[in-house]
Amino acid sequence: MPIITIHNLDKQRAWGLWNIQEETKTLEDSYSFGSEERMYLDSISHPKKKQEWLASRITVGLVCEQLKLPYAGTLKMPDKRPYLCEQNGEVSISHSHDYAAAIIDQHKPVGIDIERIDPKILTIRKKFLFEEEISEDVRQMTQYWCIKEAGYKLAGEKGISLKDDIIVEPIPAGINHGETLIHLKGVTYKILYFEYDNYIVAFNID
User: Fold this and answer.
1) Strand (E) positions, the chain?
2) DSSP secondary-structure letter at 109?
3) Which domain, by its residues, includes 200?
4) Which of 41, 45, 141, 162 has the most crowded CB, counting CB atoms within 10 A?
C-alpha cells in the first residue's frame, strides 16, 4: 500500500498522505465499509472519483488508527463536509490527481488541502487573490491557493470567499515549505505548507 506518511501533530491530531496507485477494485477490496458508505460509493459514476473516494477513506482510517481511535467510516453532511461516523472528532479530506490527504483532530476544527503545481493556476489566480498577492511564480500562487482552500475547509461554512474572507500573511517566493498565518472572520490560524512530488499540501497546526 503506497501510504506516504501518517504523522502525529500532537496527541489529539494527526494527518496522512496517500499516493493513489491501486486500481479501484484493489482499494475497494481493502476497505472495510461503514454504514451507508457502500451505497454512497455506488452512487459515484466516474471511475476516478471512486478511486479518490476510496483512497481518501482508507487514509482517514489509517489516521484514526494512528490516534488509536476506532474507525466506523466517513460520510458527508448535506453541505458536503465530511464527518466521522460514530465519532465526535473533526476530519478534513482532500485529493488531487494522484494523492489523497486527511487530517483528524479529536476536538478542534481542521482543514487540509492538496493541489498539484500547474501553470494553469495563473489563469485563475485573480479569482482568489488580492492584487498585492499576485505574482508570476506558479509555486507561490499554488501555495496561496492551497492555504486558502485549507482555510475554507477549516471555516466549515458556506459563503466564505477565498479572496475576500481568508487573508494570508505574505509568503516569500522561492521557498518550498514554511508556516504562515491566515485571518478568517476575526480568528487567526497557523498553517503549515510544504511541497511534495510537485504538489503543495497545507493544513492548520493550531
Assistant:
1) 3-8, 13-19, 74-76, 82-84, 90-96, 99-105, 112-116, 166-168, 177-184, 187-196, 199-204
2) -
3) 113-204
4) 141
Do 101 and 119 share a domain, yes or no? Answer: no
Q: How far apart (Å, rounded) are the C-alpha atoms in residues 176 and 139?
A: 8
Cell of 142: 499554488
Rounded alpha-carbon distances, angstroms, from residue 51 to 18, 22, 27, 77: 12, 8, 7, 20
Q: Does the global pTM surpass 0.85?
A: yes
Q: Which residues pair with 73 in a beta bridge?
A: none
pLDDT in tens, 12-23: 999 999 999 999
Query: How many distinct structural domains can be found in the chain?
Result: 2
pLDDT digits (tens, 9 = 90+) for 8-48: 899 999 999 999 999 999 999 999 998 789 998 999 999 99
Residues 185 and 126: their CA atoms lie apart, in Å, by 21
